[in-house]
Every structure is written in C-alpha cells, then in structure tokens.
Amino acid sequence: MADLIPFDDRDGQIWYNGKLIPWRDAKVHVLTHGLHYASCVFEGERAYGGKIFKSREHSERLLNSAKILDFTIPYTAEQIDQAKADTLKANGLTDAYVRPIAWRGSDMMGVSAQHNKIHVAVAVWQWPSYFSPELRAKGIKLTMAKYRRPSPETAPTASKAAGLYMICTISKHAAERDGFQDALMLDWRGQIAEATGANVFFVMNGELHTPKPDCFLDGITRRTVIGLARDRQLKVVERAIMPDEMSTATECFLTGTAAEITPVGEIAQYKFTPGKITHQLWDDFQRATKA
Predict the structure, then answer these.
(1) Phi first, then psi: what are they for 32, rounded to 5°?
(2) What pTM did the predictor assign?
(3) 133-290 topology per CATH
C-alpha cells in the first residue's frame, strides 16, 4: 500500500543496547541468528497518557521468555522499564505502542549459538485502535485457522517468541484474503486456543468462559480482564472449550495489547451479539488504563 510508512524509514529514536540512537540507524546484520533461527523474544505494550500499562509485568515476561529460549537478557526488569519510559519520552509520545525485543546476534551462525551477543532494543510508535469503531460496534468476523497451536512438548509455548507467530501470520493473511478480520486457532487436541494475536472469551449463561492457557500465551490483558470481571462478581471459568460449544455463547470478545477488548460478531457459522458484559468490561478496561 502506497500510503504505508516503512518501519525502517521513520523519524525518531530507538533504544538499542543501552542508548538512544536515530531510528534509521537501528540495524542488524543479515546473518543475525534471530533472523535465521528465530532466537528472538519480544513484548507488545501500550502507553496511555504517558504511562506504559503493566510495564513491569511485560518486562518480567520478556526476561522469562528469553530464559525459556536459553539466553539471558543483560538488563534487569527495572532497566528495561526505564528504557521503555526513556524511549517514549524521547519520541514525544504519550499514547503509543511499545515494542521491546531481544535476540541472539551474528557472532555464531548455526543452530548452536551459545556465545552470541544478546541484543536488546525498544521502539515506540503511534498505533490507534486495532479495529474501527464500526467494527467494534457490531463485532469483528473470524474464520477458523488451518494451523493449530502446538503441544508444550513440541514448542516453547509459554514464551512470547518470534517463531511461534509464523502460523499466526499465515492464518491472519488467509483470513483477510477471505474477508475476515482474524482467525480462531484450535490447539493440537482440537480445543479452542486463541486468535492469531489475542486471547478469546465467551459469555455463556451469564458466565465468562475462556480457554485454559496451557499451550499458548497467558496474555497480560487476558489476566487484567479476568481480574476486572471478578471485581464485577462475574464468574470466570478457565477450561477446555470445544468448537461446537460456541453455539451456546451469546457474546464473544478478544483481548490483547493491540486488540485491547474487541467484540466478536461471528466465528465461522457461530454468531454473537456484543452485549452488556462485553461493554461493561470495555468500560472497566478503559478506566484501568487511565489509572
């Protein structure tokens, strides 16, 4: 699309290995291990009114993701928090998307890379609501994804690792080509897992039901929404959910840093109507981000 601004050609500054540098100078070599072997972890965060929402939780998850991928990020959670805040301020943004990322460098090229330097960067940019107000009002449309979330015995599913998103990109592209906004992914057992980049919730008999995150990321927004629901005295049930159970759901929504809380109107042949619980949790979430 001609009106898109490439992410490698923008004004601003990026925090890179301990210092702020001009945006266009934040480069990596073509033989970077993270590019060839997916030894890369990242976070997606949002800043509201100049404050990064759940910043410490994200920083700690970044460190843990790296640990799961068998490398150590050379900064503490406190230092990563500060780097994010400094980058936000340096770019003059208050409401923004925040992307910390860590990866193995180019010292060794091959599957084995124990001695590669670990690089860390933080970038921030303006990113409005993921979906338009019109789509939010009626709910987005999802199709079913071709690929399934793998077993924890076959992939490091507790990490927010770049390699785990390969099937998400494939699935989202296929969905958009067919006129949908996203795709619902099942897990290797055939149970409902998540969308391509967001967790999913269903309202069933006045209760909130969501898949147990035993093979996909337990989202920070997901945990926030569960807390908000319980504050409302809503019963929250985390369990295995089979696809045909969607016929009993009256409301459905996605949660995530990018999605925030996004109502769903349709998943394959199943229809939902954004209702009282979805709207109430959206209002509560908006207040939580402004606190």
Answers:
(1) -70, 135
(2) 0.95
(3) D-amino Acid Aminotransferase; Chain A, domain 2 (3.20.10)
